[in-house]
């Protein structure tokens, strides 16, 4: 029924953004120019539902936007246009999402303009280089303080604002946001121990190095800056996260 309605419109081109479903051939063949989609990655890397989160989780220094002509696979269609975008230091998934969203319209317009001028050279994706960015599950969100500071900071930033990386504090699940690596190297700390407050952040030991956390959310409460959080929930030096 839906395909019949689309055929009546006789579209030259269809654009799909953040749809999250694989389209069937009956629909794909209707528009003369095909159906275009934009993915927030440099395909064939990070095909799938959560490319922004996984790029940050894996501590990538750059990502991108890719316009592709959709086929029956998951982000497997030929590439029409691609733009590389750097990931900024301490950038969160939410911040990167917003920045890519602002660029996406221009990227799509350029791709369509090139198509109209017959200037597009379609590039088939190399499936052997493909990686997949699966949906982030709740089980992926728990902070393991024995991990290095860099890895923990990437986790916190990748899950900011949603679903939020979490740890235990006196048996309660608290979410951590807005992290930065304070020290990459030290191995002599106690993982999960609060070392100091700076006014802007609390510094916490990890399995390797130290991390700074600027925002915390207690269960049932709003997300707060560290200075505001500490007014209601003191965290003395030596407090242990993860217990």
What can you see in these coordinates?
It is a single chain. The protein has six helices and ten strands. Strands 5, 6, 7, 8, 9 and 10 form a six-stranded antiparallel sheet that branches. Strands 1-2-3-4 form a four-stranded mixed sheet. The protein is of the alpha+beta class. It folds into two domains: 2-129, Rossmann fold, CATH 3.40.50; 138-232, Methionyl-tRNA Fmet Formyltransferase, Chain A, domain 2 (Roll), CATH 3.10.25.
Q: Main traits of this protein?
A:
Rossmann fold; 2 domains; four-stranded mixed sheet; 10 strands; 243 residues; Methionyl-tRNA Fmet Formyltransferase, Chain A, domain 2; alpha+beta; six-stranded antiparallel sheet; elongated; 6 helices
Map the helices and strands:
Layout: H1 2-9, E1 14-16, H2 25-28, E2 35-39, H3 51-57, E3 62-69, E4 79-86, H4 93-116, H5 149-158, E5 165-169, E6 172-183, E7 194-197, E8 202-205, E9 210-217, E10 223-225, H6 226-232
Parallel strand pairs: 1-2
Antiparallel strand pairs: 2-3, 3-4, 5-6, 6-9, 7-8, 8-9, 9-10
Helix pairs in contact: 3-5
